[in-house]
Q: What sequence folds into this?
């Protein structure tokens, strides 16, 4: 029996509430030559019963026995997949019916690309909104200095390229394992994102990231592993304070004083200077991302008021491409001293 073109890997952990919806979303794809490998990671709810009740011959159910964590489960998926391509799917989400078809078509016309993600639509507790990410390889690489740039659940891989590059998810990382994975991957081959939302991410309390809300020290301990190697590549041996500044810039942390805002801005200038020397990132792509991050930083500092806006206005003209809509948005936030992310 010949192998399928695509392997779809679905990690499952206590996902009974939406699991059947997620499975149905995969089975309803316009592209049909795939296997769906569902890996139960020690669920204690009814997930295993739902998985074992499936009758579609394309579905294969595996079990870790006990809870081994998301990195272990993803690596097991990478090992067990039989397809030429691999796609991820979370056990409580939905996908557009032509997701696989469109990503495979992209690979066909872009033979140099090894990983292809998409934009995603968040739905659930709040109103639906599209989360966009960069589409160009160099811009994705530059953004990964600060925060994730490929939504893992949307990603599709050329599986042999992943194996030849010996890429795997770091078992030390309880979260951000995908952040680290794509940081490594974009140093092996070009990556890209389709500028279209083909994935529907359910905003629920069961997500792994939700369990880290309010646990900044735990999250910082994990992210510093990624940030340290990023900064060392730029020739920086970061201090504890520098790592915390870098983390605060890339996270949802709000800045409460003008001094801390300026300190973070000066760190961005320092990174720009180091990249001019080391040439790790393409200068145009890095300038674009620094401009985006500077706006992100200023937005998170709007509760400080108009001093933030005037500083932003002065520096954006000197250093980065200006965006009129963003500038007006920041002005309004600073005028009312908006104190939410």
A:
């Amino acid at each position: 029996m010949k192998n399928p073109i695509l392997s779809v890997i679905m990690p499952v952990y206590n996902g009974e509430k939406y699991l059947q919806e997620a499975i149905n979303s995969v089975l309803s794809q316009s592209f049909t030559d795939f296997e769906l490998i569902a890996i139960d990671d020690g669920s204690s709810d009814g997930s295993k019963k739902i998985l074992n009740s499936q009758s579609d011959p394309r579905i294969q159910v595996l079990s870790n026995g006990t809870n081994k964590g998301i990195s272990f489960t993803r690596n097991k998926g990478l090992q067990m997949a039989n397809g030429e391509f691999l796609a991820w799917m979370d056990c409580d989400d939905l996908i557009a019916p032509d997701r696989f078809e469109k990503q495979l078509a992209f690979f066909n016309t872009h033979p140099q690309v090894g990983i292809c993600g998409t934009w995603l639509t968040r739905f659930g507790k709040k109103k639906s909104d599209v989360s966009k990410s960069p589409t160009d390889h160099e811009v994705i690489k530059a953004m990964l200095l600060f925060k994730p740039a490929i939504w893992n659940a949307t990603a599709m891989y050329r599986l042999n390229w992943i194996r030849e590059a010996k890429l795997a998810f770091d078992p030390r990382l309880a979260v951000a394992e995908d952040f680290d994975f794509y940081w490594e991957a974009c140093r092996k081959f070009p990556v890209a994102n389709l500028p279209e939302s083909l994935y529907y991410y359910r905003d629920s309390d069961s997500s792994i990231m939700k369990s880290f809300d309010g646990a900044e020290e735990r999250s910082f301990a994990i992210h510093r592993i990624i940030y340290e190697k990023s900064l060392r590549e730029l020739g920086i041996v970061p201090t504890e304070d520098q790592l915390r500044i870098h983390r605060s810039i890339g996270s949802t942390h709000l800045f409460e004083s003008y001094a801390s805002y300026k300190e973070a801005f000066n760190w961005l200038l320092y990174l720009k200077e180091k990249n001019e020397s080391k040439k790790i990132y393409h200068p145009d792509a890095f300038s674009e991302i620094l401009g985006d991050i500077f706006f992100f930083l200023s937005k998170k500092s709007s509760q400080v008021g108009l001093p933030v806006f005037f500083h932003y206005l002065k520096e954006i003209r000197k250093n980065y491409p200006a965006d009129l809509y963003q500038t007006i948005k920041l002005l309004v936030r600073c005028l009312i001293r908006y104190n939410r992310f």
About this structure: Residues 258-278 form the longest helix (21 residues).
